[in-house]
Amino acid sequence: MDTHKTSHQPASALAVFIGTIDAALPQTQCTRCGYPDCRHYAQAIAQGEAAINQCPPGGQEGVLRLAAITGQPALPLNPDNGLEAVRVVARIDENWCIGCTLCIKACPTDAILGANKRMHTIIADACTGCELCLPVCPVDCIELDNASGEATGWAAWSPAQADEARQRYQKHQQRLDRAYRPKDPSPVAPAAITAQAAQATAVSAAASQNTAASKAKLAVPATADKKAILAAILAKAKQQQGGNHSS
């Protein structure tokens, strides 16, 4: 199949094509292909935006599988994306772990257990060897152990492991979506809204009346008060004038 023509395919056909490519990827979610996860890499291949030789965990066998699906020639694995190697599993040195939780946040399959300021540990069976936990560890307490002997690529991995990794990654993404999704305010019944509006209107009207009354009192003092003030001013003026004449 010519991937350069897939952009003109119906959406359903393109989605099936992307799914087929995604199923042929190892689902390590390591981002070495240059994309955030295997699904995005599959989409880029289907749309003719990425080559099929950018997945080191799949190795050359992975390139052959993608070539069979897409009809593209089986190119050698691109060294710019990494080299085919044995499968590794991360391990945390408990003597150095400070419980910063940075590796937990970086793990795409939730394969690390721990809490803030508590020692962390890795679930070996859930670790895909993506190595994304290494650069975020501030104390370099994470090591990689060989988990496949001399086997590399798909020879060191299996479709069952890929399926489990995909499911764990999808649950990981769903958890993040829930954590960062803005919470909607609790809905208010129409009757309650009407009652609240009526109450607000009544309070506003009362406040306006009180304000108007207060302004009226300040702006128009009683006539008796005016006369008293004027009398006091005149008396003080007469006193000052009398004092000036006597001097």
Q: What features would you describe in this structure?
A:
The protein is mainly alpha-helical. 47% of the residues lie in helices and 6% in strands. It is built from 7 helices and 4 strands. The strands form 2 sheets. A two-stranded antiparallel ribbon has the order 1-4. It has a two-stranded antiparallel ribbon with strand order 2-3. A hairpin with a 7-residue loop joins strand 2 (112-113) and strand 3. The longest helix has 30 residues, at 190-219. The radius of gyration is 38 Å and the shape is extended. The model is unreliable at 1-5, 200-204 and 210-223 (pLDDT under 50).
Can you summarize this structure?
The chain has 247 residues and is mainly alpha-helical.
Oligomer: single chain
Whole-number mean pLDDT: 82
Proportion of β residues?
5-15%
Low-confidence stretches: 1-5, 200-204, 210-223
Described by the principal axes of the CA atoms, the overall outline is extended
Succession of helices and strands: HHHEHEEEHHH
